Amino acid sequence: MAGAKVKVAVRVRPFNARETRQRAKCVIRMSGNTTCITNPKVPEDATKHFTFDHSYWSHTSEEDPQFTSQCRVYQDVGRQLLGLGSRFGVLVWGPRGV
To answer: Rounded distance, CA 83 to CA 80, Å?
Structure first.
């Protein structure tokens, strides 16, 4: 398909109640469009860095200057998709209900 383009956006969500009770540790960091993942079980492993079209930090509260709101995600990604009519697809993966 001529002019086809793939864009990838990732977003880290807040911990759910179970994760909070278990005192889970966030192993994700984001800076610009780069997402960094550290394996806490193997600290000697280097942090892995991945670059996407968009990396959205929503793990904390809106008071955090790095926090990305749903409105911002829509402005960056959703609005463009709606302008394409029915010529796009969206794949969403991960836990829901947070």
So the answer is: 5
